[in-house]
Amino acid sequence: MHYSSSTNIWWINQFAVPPTLPGGGRHVHLAGSLEKMGCKTTIVSSTGNYMTNKRGVSEMNSCPGVHSFVQIPLGWNGLGNFGKVAKMISFRRKAIGCNWVENGETPDVVIGSSPSLHAALAASEIAKLYDVPFVLEIRDLWPLSLIEVAGVSRRNPIVKWMYKMEKEIVSRATRIISLLPNALTYLEKYDVEPSIVDWIPNGVDGSLYSNTTPNKIKGKISVMYAGSHGLPNGLKTVIDAAKHIQEYDNRITFRFVGEGSSKTNLQEYAAKQGVSNITFEAAIPRHRVPALLASADILVANIPDHELYQYGVSLNKLYEYLASGRPIALASSVADDPVKNAGVGPVALGDDAEGLAKIIYELALLSDEERASLGKKGKSFVEKEHVSDVLAAKVLTCVRKAMEP
Description:
The chain is of the alpha/beta class. The chain folds into two domains: 7-203 and 387-403, Glycogen Phosphorylase B (Rossmann fold), CATH 3.40.50; 207-385, 3-Layer(aba) Sandwich (Rossmann fold), CATH 3.40.50.2000. Helices cover 39% and strands 16% of the residues. It has helices at residues 26-36, 80-97, 117-130, 144-148, 157-172, 183-187, 235-246, 263-272, 289-294, 316-323, 338-342, 353-365, 368-385, 388-403, and strands spanning 7-12, 39-46, 68-72, 109-113, 134-138, 175-178, 197-199, 221-226, 252-257, 278-281, 298-302, 328-331, 347-348. Strand 12, helix 11 (338-342) and strand 13 (347-348) form a beta-alpha-beta unit.
């Protein structure tokens, strides 16, 4: 096994996106910080955007610090669960082929990122091909999420097949990065040695949020949700909270910004419930998110009350919310969510629409200065613990441990 003088990291994540497209930007931001530490990062993704279900191609000048951002065309754009599985299988096959490798480059370590187990499995096979360590990054627990969120039976043959795949992937990992603080409890069933698991949560590129200033609409209180519109996001609870609020305060309006598989259903649900204080808006590129969040008076989210979340959460949007310096109204039954850890205000129970409405209304009654004070506290928390440079240093430590003979 031979290692280059600068660490060459291949990061396999089917759903990674560049800043010019909607979606999570974890790996691009980390790559930029890793470059400053002497690393070259190649991100291997697909051309399909998980939020919009549309194809989009990155421009390398929009990914500073990324050595190469590879997007594999899958040749399939079917909808529904069959389409999702077909795209995951296609991605694995094409990733393993390594036809995307440029100039005969070789990795020093390969990181495979869930929730697609197929992508993580491909990463383990690429690592074996090049005789380098494989690091598993657990961003979401599959197939447990299918069971808890989508209601798929544990006896479903696909679920059983995915559990076998998960076990195999875990067994191949030299080290494991988990975004979930309590993932080790979940991994006990696979006899994972605790010393090989590193908790490296989500965060933000701090430079993107350094100069954002609020853009307040006079006489109105704007409550914003920005992110994916899918089953895991629990947005019906936020709609129900908006319904409670519209009955006694017409100053408070809601903006839902983003795309996702549930967006049409959510629009129909809001209309049937007679909720008229919500506007639904299209997703925007990631580099425009800081300015978007700064235009809100209050940011809102609901983490559904699922057993799944006993292992913790690391929602990217919550760190973006905190970094924006805006107050947050959150419904969550998770013991260690970042909003509670930052100490920026009360948190309602997950899926408690009335409790969430109460928090929103209490924040709306505060003065601009009081809301700014809460937001400043959250921003300070992120700047200390959850900016890309801090998290990238932890990734590099994990990678170097994996590379030890």
